[in-house]
Design brief:
Layout (H helix, E strand, L loop, with lengths): L10 E5 L10 H8 L3 E5 L4 H8 L4 E4 L6 H5 L6 E4 L9 H6 L3 E3 L6 H16 L2 H9 L18 E5 L3 H12 L3 E5 L6 E3 L2 E3 L2 H7 L2 E4 L13 H6 L4 E5 L8 H10 L2 E6 L18 E3 L8 H19 L12
Parallel strand pairs: 1-2, 1-3, 3-4, 4-5, 6-7, 6-10, 10-11, 11-12, 12-13
Antiparallel strand pairs: 8-9
Helix pairs in contact: 1-11, 5-7
């Protein structure tokens, strides 16, 4: 239930949507109480939520779309704090033009997403789902699963070399895998553990590709039919970043044709996806936007998002303002 409007002398923080909280906002309330701020849970239609948010001093938000029109409704908002790593559903330019700081949680799930991507890559490269299916069908033996490469003979291309990409690269190298990288944000040049190469070169030289880039106009549809055609025949694709980085229909078609030997997707352009799209598609692993999740990561995300609000409303710079475009 929406809380009653607090006294005008108190700061008002509106939560637009609560995908991860299960109705428990103790972390947020405790942190906001340190600056005398009340948390108001917005409910109802989009218009109703915007009406609740209109006089907020700050917003906490997850998936609610804050485009230029929505931001124009915010009469006194000073900060929009996003639960999560991506912030593509927020018009950051419109926010900046309105004097609103936008923050995010860039490192709350680095360990989890890197581990999930690694698990999916190993499942594909070792053909574990197919092996499980064969045994359940009463079949036996490795020959039906050929070819399987030794990990030290595999090259994995990582697209997006931020916190998660670097952590995954470290884990893969410890297993003997050769890693090449492309970073759409930082470009070519030295990037921590390796020199970045072009996307075309990465796609043509990798046995498997794992996506870790942010979603923006430059990366939307980054992997579609032309890019898949340039990949090695029988290679693998993993996406634990943003669903719209890939053209889903093209990935599914490439699995049907055999151009891709396998794919693993944790994120989708529309969530939840239509499960009928996956029927009959071979060698596809799908998980329900799970990569970010652990009990600890959610607690860290909630405290990080609320702390950004506290810092801005206290007149301090936030720890995690969104990068300037």
């Amino acid at each position: 239930m929406t809380m009653p409007s607090p006294s005008s002398s108190r700061l008002r923080v509106v939560l637009t949507d609560a995908a991860f909280s299960r109705g428990n906002f103790d972390i947020e309330r405790e942190l906001l109480a340190t600056i005398g701020a009340d948390l108001v849970i917005a409910e109802g239609s989009r218009d109703a939520i915007l009406d609740t948010a209109a006089d907020a001093d700050a917003l906490l938000t997850t998936f609610f779309v804050l485009d230029a029109e929505a931001i124009s409704c915010l009469r006194r908002c000073r900060v929009i704090s996003r639960y999560g790593v991506g912030f593509d559903q927020i018009d950051t330019r419109a926010a900046a033009d309105s004097g609103i700081v936008v923050t995010y949680c860039p490192d709350y799930c680095t360990e989890e997403v890197a581990a999930h991507a690694l698990a999916l890559l190993l499942m594909l490269l070792r053909r574990i789902p197919q092996g499980d299916t064969f045994v359940r069908q009463g079949e036996w033996g490795a020959p039906r699963l050929r070819p399987i490469q030794r990990l030290s003979e595999v090259t994995v291309g990582i697209v997006g070399y931020g916190r998660i990409g670097r952590r995954l690269a470290t884990s893969l190298r410890e297993l003997g895998v050769t890693v090449v990288i492309n970073d759409p944000i930082r470009g070519r040049g030295e990037n921590g553990l390796a020199a970045a190469i072009s996307l075309d070169e990465l796609l043509s030289t990798s046995d498997a590709v794992s996506l870790h880039a942010p979603l923006n106009e430059a990366t939307r549809g980054l992997i579609g039919a032309p890019q898949i055609a340039s990949m090695r025949e029988g290679s693998y694709l993993v996406n634990t970043a943003r669903g719209a980085l890939v053209v889903l229909e093209d990935v599914l078609a490439a699995l049907q044709s055999g151009q891709l030997r396998g794919a693993a997707l944790d994120v989708f352009p529309v969530e939840p996806p239509d499960p009928s799209a996956f029927r009959g598609v071979p060698n596809l692993i799908v998980t329900p936007h799970l990569a970010y999740y652990s009990e600890a990561s959610v607690q860290e995300m909630k405290s990080t998002a609320a702390r950004q609000v506290v810092q801005v409303l206290s007149g301090r710079a936030p720890d995690h303002p969104v990068p300037r475009s």
